[in-house]
Specification:
Blueprint lengths: L6 E2 L9 H4 L3 E14 L4 E7 L5 E19 H7 L9 H4 L5 E16 L6 E7 L5 H11 L1 H8 L3 E14 L5 E12 L5 E5 L8 E18 H6 L7 H6 L4 E13 L7 E7 L11 E12 L1 E2 L5
Antiparallel strand pairs: 1-14, 2-7, 3-6, 4-5, 4-6, 4-7, 8-13, 9-12, 10-11, 10-12, 10-13
Helix pairs in contact: 4-5
Length: about 300
């Protein structure tokens, strides 16, 4: 996905090598590719774009017969297709909200600017041929929707070449450095929170090492939610469920968590599992560190 990038350089001394002074050049480069086969009237979720701050996408599509291509929020698609036969019913599928719809496509360069969203986006390709839905539905009760569709008419083969926005000239490998945020021992009978730095560059994460005498719960959650847990412990399940990373019933753990580039402050919460018995002499040891980019960094765009 295309995003805005800037070049971050470290200056060591009074001079900088000429090669490092050259600005990086970005362009679309081929990424993954796929081939799908569609029966008349069939819709298929062919690709997922991860949630985030949005940006441009590009792909090359070629089909043997005309198709419609569009994007939709993945949650909307999943809800609509809980009934497998829903993909055969236009009265259901046509009510969904599609983005960047292109119809009657056999050979095109497809582009779209995705909105910022907490939900992933699904690329949907629909074969525009009509079929006897009553017959198709009857056969599908025995064989399944896709198997039934394959019996009605020859497949429409659709080739998809995806592209990504990447450096193509004056490219340098990003350099990272570990920064310790906390290291301590404590009695495992309270909620502990550790503020995490706002991520500035692609690839930043938090690393956690912990040993405990009792099973502990660890999760990365929004800082405002972490602070509310002190007075509203009943919010714990919902907070952990919406967190970026989590470890349950952990006593010896070493894990890394990619920081969410959404501009909101995040915190690591650590507390004993609700079902854990607390020994009088128990201890928990924890070390929290952050991996930060320090040179040749891909910077996330600011809002």
């Amino acid at each position: 996905m295309k995003k805005a990038f800037t070049l971050a350089l470290l200056f060591a001394g009074a001079t900088v090598p000429a090669a490092l002074a050259q600005q990086r050049v970005f362009d679309w480069v081929p990424d993954t590719n796929d081939v799908v086969r569609l029966a008349p009237g069939m819709r298929q979720n062919t690709h997922q774009y991860a949630p985030g701050q949005g940006g441009d996408i590009k792909l090359q599509l070629t089909a043997q017969r005309p198709v419609t291509v569009s994007l939709i929020h993945s949650s909307d698609w999943e809800n609509a297709t809980r009934d497998p036969e829903a993909i055969l019913r236009a009265e259901v599928m046509d009510k969904l909200q599609y983005l960047c719809k292109q119809e009657h496509v056999v050979n095109t360069t497809y582009t779209c600017t995705l909105p910022a969203s907490a939900d992933s986006m699904a690329l949907i390709v629909r074969d525009e041929r009509t079929g006897d839905r009553a017959v198709l539905a009857g056969i599908s009760n025995v064989l399944g929707v896709r198997q039934a569709a394959a019996m009605i008419a020859p497949a429409n083969e659709v080739s998809l070449q995806y592209y990504r926005w990447d450096c193509v000239q004056n490219c340098y490998r990003s350099e990272f450095r570990e920064v310790r945020l906390a290291k301590e021992k404590f009695a495992p009978n309270i909620l502990k929170t550790y503020s995490l730095p706002l991520p500035e560059h692609d690839g930043e994460q938090v690393d956690v090492k912990m040993k405990s005498s009792v099973p502990m719960l660890l999760a990365v959650v929004p800082s405002d939610v972490a602070q509310q847990l002190y007075s509203h412990p009943d919010m714990l399940d919902n907070a952990v469920g919406n967190g970026v990373c989590q470890q349950r019933a952990a006593q010896s753990v070493n894990f890394g968590c990619q920081l969410n580039p959404n501009g909101a402050a995040q915190s690591l919460i650590v507390l004993p599992e609700p079902s854990a018995g607390i020994p009088k002499k128990g201890k928990t040891e924890i070390e929290v560190s952050s991996v930060k980019c320090v040179a040749h960094c891909r910077v996330w765009p600011s809002n």
